[in-house]
Amino acid sequence: MRKFFLGWVLPLLIAVAVMFVLWLVYHNRIYKVGGDAMSPTLQRGQTVLVSYDSKIRRGDIVLVNDIFAPQGDAVNHLAFTRCVGLPGDTLKNVSLPSLYKNLVLPRRGMTVALNYANYMIYKDLMERYEGVNIEWRNGGYYVDGRQTLRYMFKRSYVYLSNDNGNDLADSRSFGPVPSDVISGKIALDF
Question: What is the pTM of this model?
Fold first, then answer.
């Protein structure tokens, strides 16, 4: 029996352990929570496993790149927050500034009519993240100097909210953000 265990079972267990470690290294990362934005759900110093290849769902706690970090340095400024709105969602039951009430989160390829309401709601997204200049003048809407009646979004957007109601460094302050700021989601916390 001992020969069977040492000759077959033990190497199999070692191989499974090595494969698990390789899977963790290449598909997931282990992080320590560095702030209080997700308190009481996550505590400062808590260890979490982040999955990079999982589908993001509404309510997931996600790891995001800091969109306000210096250019090219966002990957070094990571934070955890909750995804409360996905591309295509209409935001209704979340704490929102009045400007974003009934906001439809744009998804790539979505077209909106340019009217006063949409201009007020989406102007910041278009200029900050889409890289276009939009203005209202002479009774019309102009995107990059050309008059137009519609705008098609180049990126998809999410709405993020911290669990700590006192920490407003989330979409409640700066609005929806491009979905590509999400690096992954928490797969396990311990």
Answer: 0.79
